[in-house]
Write a structure and sequence with these properties.
Layout lengths: L1 E6 L2 E6 L9 E4 L15 E4 L9 E3 L2 E9 H6 L1 E7 L2 E7 L8 E4 L16 E8 L6 H15 L2
């Protein structure tokens, strides 16, 4: 990513590689203050401050987020559509998924700053959406399931 920075009346073009960490220091050689008695310019050090994302929390190169899945999807197991940094994709929710379960999606996290082609993982914490308004037919089916469960 190429950014333009204004510093002491100058415009500097700075290339920031993907995967840079919050608090990381970048050194820009020869772009600091002029040396004493007209000497060579020093280096400019920039501390990177990354704004928090509304959906993802970053831990190293791993990303963490939460998703809500319908009750029946958690019970029966189905595919759900999620958004990742690499675009939308369908993932399988395993049958019998419990609230709070975490799924790990390998290689879908942040790129590694120092190693090209290496990515962290994406962790999805599952929340189950419990229906709040049931039709009469839905309620009857849930009650029928409850009766079957009691007979076990």
């Amino acid at each position: 990513m190429l950014d333009v920075l204004k510093f002491e009346g100058r415009r500097l073009r700075i290339k920031v590689r993907p995967g840079i960490q919050d608090g990381q220091i970048l050194r820009i050689k020869g772009q600091g203050a002029t040396g004493k008695n007209g000497g060579e310019a020093g280096d400019l050090y920039l501390k990177i401050m990354i704004k928090p994302h509304s959906k993802y929390t970053r831990k190293g190169n791993d990303l963490h987020t939460e998703i809500r899945v319908p009750l029946l999807t958690a019970i029966l197991g189905r595919k759900v559509e999620i958004t990742t940094l690499k675009g939308n994709m369908a993932i399988a929710i395993p049958e019998g998924t419990q609230p709070g379960k975490q799924l790990k999606l390998k290689g879908l996290g942040m790129p590694d700053y120092d190693r090209s082609g290496v990515f962290g993982d994406l962790y999805l914490k599952i929340h189950i959406a419990i229906p709040t308004k049931l039709s009469a037919q839905e309620r009857a089916l849930y009650e029928q399931l409850e009766q079957m469960d009691r007979k076990k």
